[in-house]
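Researcher: Next sequence.
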Amino acid sequence: MTEQKEALQAKEAVESTPELDEAATPANEVEPEGATETDEAAAAAAEEDGESETDESPEAPLVAERDQLQDRLLRLNAEFDNYKKRMIRENSERLRYSSFELLAGLLPTLDNLERAIDHAKKEESTRESMIEGLELVCKMAQDTLVKHGVSKISAQGEVFDPTRHQAVGMVETTDVPSNHVAEECLVGYTLHERILRPAMVRVAGK
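Model: Next structure:
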C-alpha cells in the first residue's frame, strides 16, 4: 500500500513539472513574433542609413569644390564680359576723338588766318604785310603737322619713285637727268611711314 502511494505521488510530481517550468519562465524572456520582425526592420533601416552616410561622405568635398569652381567661373565670365564692353567703349571713344590734339593745334593757325583776312580788307594794308601774314600762318600750320608726325615728301630733282610720287606728265629738260622729277606740281605728305598723299610731279624724259 505504501509502495502504491509513493508511485502515485511520483507520477503526480512528473506530470506537474512542465506546468511549473512554464509558469516559472519570466515574461521578459518570451519573444513575441511581431517584436522580432520589428527589430530586424529597424536594424536593416539603420544599416541602410549608415551605408548612405558612408557613400555620401566622400562626395561631399567634391561637390563643394565643384560649386566653388562653378561660382568662380561665373564671376570670371562676368568680369570678362565687362572688360570687353569697356574696351569696346574706350576704343570707340579713342577713334572718335583721335584727331582731337591735331585739331586743337590747328585752331591757332585758323585764328591767325582770320586775322590776316581781316587785315587784308583794311585800306592801309599792303601787299608785303599780307604776304608776311600768310607766310606766318602757313608756317604755324606746318609746325603743327610736323608735331603730329606729318612731313613733306621730297620730290624736286629726286629719282621718280612711284610709291611716293604720282606722275601727271613728262617734260623735256636738261636740268635733271631722265626719269627724275623735273617739276613738283603738288606737295606730298606722309604720316610717319604711311603716305597721306603722293607728290604730284612731272618727270623728265623724251
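Model: Residues 151-206 form a domain with the Nucleotide Exchange Factor Grpe; Chain A, domain 2 fold (CATH 2.30.22.10). The beta strands are 150-152, 165-171, 181-186, 189-191, 194-197, 199-204.
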